[in-house]
Amino acid sequence: MWNGKNKAVTFSYDDGVLQDICLVDIFNKYGLKATFNVNSELLGRSGKLLRNGVTVRHDKMSPEKAREVYLGHEVAAHTLTHPCLVNLNDEEIIRQVEGDRLALSELCGYEVVGMAYPGGDCDERVARIIRENTGVKYARLVESSKNFDLQEDLIMFRPTVYHIDADDMFALAEKFLSSEADKPQLFYIWGHSYEFDAWNFWERFEDLCRMISGRSDIFYGTNREVFGF
User: pLDDT tens, 138-149?
Assistant: First the structure.
């Protein structure tokens, strides 16, 4: 399936925040690959968020920094300004998604074809509009599947696990590593890197990366690579 391997691991991180710099360093250290979903019109803006009772920085990278940091990984769309897509009319959905995709393609120097839904908000109408009117080939929701099975609908793709659910993430990692995989299996983890600050689990996440890396039976790729684009 993936260079003759039946197992693959990929990661997906949203918002294009400065904490991604440390996260990319961890991924590079262990030979892992990720997709970073970016709001092109918000690049360079500063902000704060309250998460888990902790105020954390939510500062977006500059366009120049994003191009440098994500080199070797994948940049994907996250809409221009992070609206709730289900509340928008058809034309604005297209503008938000395709406008972001095209801007990021120009920024990165390759055609962006992936996406993550802001807030995970998507319904059949939104999915249909994206399928029919944009260059997006795959788009991630936020609801966890808690399994490794491949899915037919890549425009409403469910990840395996949200990294905040750390106990589930480690349990699934152990199951994934120990399985024989007589059919293709994908372990897909997603989150936001600022959450590592709010939940104080940078070290534990690095433990996870160390645990799943370096296996000869696993393909490590971006979302684009594991989906075959």
Answer: 999 999 999 999
